[in-house]
Amino acid sequence: MTISEPRLDRDDLTTIGQELHRFAAELYPICRSITGNGLRETLKKIQEIVPLEIREVPSGTKVFDWEVPKEWNIRDAYVKNQSGRKVIDFQEHSLHILNYSVPMQARLSLSELRTHLHSIPQHPDWIPYRTSYYKPDWGFCLRHRELQALEEGEYEVCIDTSLEDGNLSYGEIALRGESSDEVLISLHACHPSLANDNLSGVTVAAFLARLLREKKLRYSYRFVFIPGTIGAITWLATNQENTKRVRHGLVLTCIGDAGGFHYKKSRRGDAEIDRAMAHVLKHCGEPFEVLEFSPYGYDERQYCSPGFNLPVGCLMRSVWGTFPEYHTSADNLEFIRAEKLAHSLRVCTQAIEVLEGNRSYQNQNPYCEPQLGKRGLYGSRGGQAIPEEIHARLWVLNLSDGSHSLLEIAERAGLPFSAIREAANVLLESGLLTEVVAVS
Ligand SMILES: [Zn+2]
Predict the structure, then answer these.
(1) Mean pLDDT over each residue of the chain, to the nearest integer
(2) What is the CA(152)–ligand 1 centre distance, in A?
(3) Burial (0-12, 13-18, 19+ Cβ within 10 Å), 121
(4) How many angstroms separate the alpha carbon of residue 293 from the centre of ligand 1?
(5) Is 308 exposed, middle or buried (0-12, 13-18, 19+ CB in 10 A)?
């Protein structure tokens, strides 16, 4: 009934970490946006890992209080100086263009050009990431030291983009489990060359889906690879039936950097996913913090809007906006680490293992302790007692009165869920427990 955690020992973690990083590196150069061919190309690349279905929602589609915007595509963009040299070149880095810039051909003085340039004086070697999705505008982003080196004179601006009726693309994969109740895994795939935010989430989710495809699952799983905000709103507006089946959910973002884990709880605050993540992080061996819900951040904002109030939390390492590399060219492939991506994947599989295995049982021998010794349950098979194993059995027996789930028992016992699950399996085999079927 339970999935066993994929065998992620030290060697496997190293190998998977390298694979995750390699995949992030393949996606990194693509100029993604909330619509357009960069996003589509990214979804097609993910199809090499899992059979993602790509869906297209036409521009102009009303989605609650929003509307699917026109599709943006870019072929080239540059600024040339008087001698014809490109001083800003989109081909060098996808962050050089203000994302969603309208088409533009112009000759401008330096002072006119400067009103369309964005840089970060505190970090003169980093290119900022800027967007203008909902207000028609154009601009370039560049390193501050490049901006300072621009000389007086006339500049030629070329922005070869299109902003036309088209589609918003998103990717979805549904994995069938025994139950039609679903676990939703969501991540944004709209940022251009930025690694932690959010190629880390994209790669970990793709590999997580690949791992789960091979398992017999209790829940059904739905992975959505969507543009941030408008993508989540579009998905929710066009999948309202599916939302009724969501029992647990996670947004994955910024999970490749060297920082400790942060889990932001769902709006409900006490959802099973909130408790499962807090429990897994407590036993994961890395620093972590559990944060209360707030109506700002990533797409959990949409899933946790009051009309839906879905039990969806957000797993991060460093929190968006708190690390200086956030939304700059320094959020690059060096900023994310193979080992951290692999550990994030492991934390996700452990949380899913909790959801899959969390059930309630009834002790069939509740009057005093059952005599475990005569059933061969008071020592491990080799005759060497492992205290954790025995403790776990005693905790499960004591709290299995039908009103405590295994996760609650694990929390109270201070033991990893896997130890409690294993104890319950042994006690079930010996007939000391029966499952309590949840009434929903
Ligand atoms: Zn972002």
Answers:
(1) 95
(2) 34
(3) exposed
(4) 18
(5) middle
Tokens of 176: 């069938």
CA distance linking residue 264 with residue 313, whole number of Å = 6
Q: How many CA atoms lie within 13 A of 341 on its CB side?
A: 33
β-pair partners for 78: 89, 158
The Å distance, Cα 191 to ligand 1 centre, comes to 7
Q: Give the Å distance between the CA of 257 and the centre of ligand 1.
A: 14
Contact 113, 79 (CB under 8 A): yes
Question: pLDDT of 181-211, one tens digit each?
Answer: 999 999 999 999 999 999 999 999 999 999 9
Q: How far is the CA of 277 from the centre of ligand 1 (A)?
A: 23
Q: How far apart are CA 317 and CA 189, in angstroms?
A: 18
Cα angle 187, 134, 326 (rounded to 5 degrees) comes to 45
pLDDT by residue (tens digit) across 378-410? 875 555 556 889 999 999 999 999 999 999 999
Q: Give the side-chain half-sphere CA count within 13 A for 149.
A: 10
Q: Which residues contact 239 (CB under 8 A, 6 or more apart)?
A: none
Centre of ligand 1 from the C-alpha of residue 236, in Å: 20
304-310 long-range CB contacts below 8 Å, 24 or more apart? 304/266, 304/267, 304/268, 306/267, 308/236, 308/243, 309/267, 309/268, 310/184, 310/243, 310/246, 310/249, 310/266
Residues 6+ apart with CB under 8 A from 5: 346, 349, 350, 353, 418
HSE-CB of 312 using CA atoms within 13 angstroms: 31
pLDDT at 387: 81
Q: Structure tokens of 173?
A: 């994969």
Q: How confident is the model at residue 341 (pLDDT cuts 50, 70, 90)?
A: very high
Cβ-in-10-Å burial (0-12, 13-18, 19+) of 83 comes to: exposed
254 CA distance to ligand 1 middle (Å): 9
pLDDT, one tens digit per residue, over 81-128 is: 999 999 999 999 999 999 999 999 999 999 999 999 999 999 999 999
- First vs last Cα of the chain: how many Å apart? 19
CB contact burial 48-62 (16+ within 10 A = b; e otherwise)? ebbebebbebebeee
